[in-house]
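Entry 12.
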Amino acid sequence: MCRNIKTLFNFEPPATEEEIRAAAVQFVRKLSGFNKPSQANEAAFTQAVDDVAAAARVLMASLSTTASPRDREVEAGKARERSRLRFSRG
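Predicted 3D structure (tokens):
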């Protein structure tokens, strides 16, 4: 499950709200063990996602680096190549 959480810091353009929320959802899913919570747990699950997303925004705003921002397309290409090598037959 957590394999889908991507690094969000130091990219150009910066992480979107949708990316931050998706990472928060994956994190809460992993912690709770629920892919989709029951109606009884939905409010707690949603609140946890909101809290984790808020904490992620604070964290990313607080971090600093001297490294130049990474390019999303270059990183996506590297990930595709790693996947190709990992799952190719031969």
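Annotation: The first helix runs from residue 17 to 32. Helices lie at 17-32, 39-62, 72-87.
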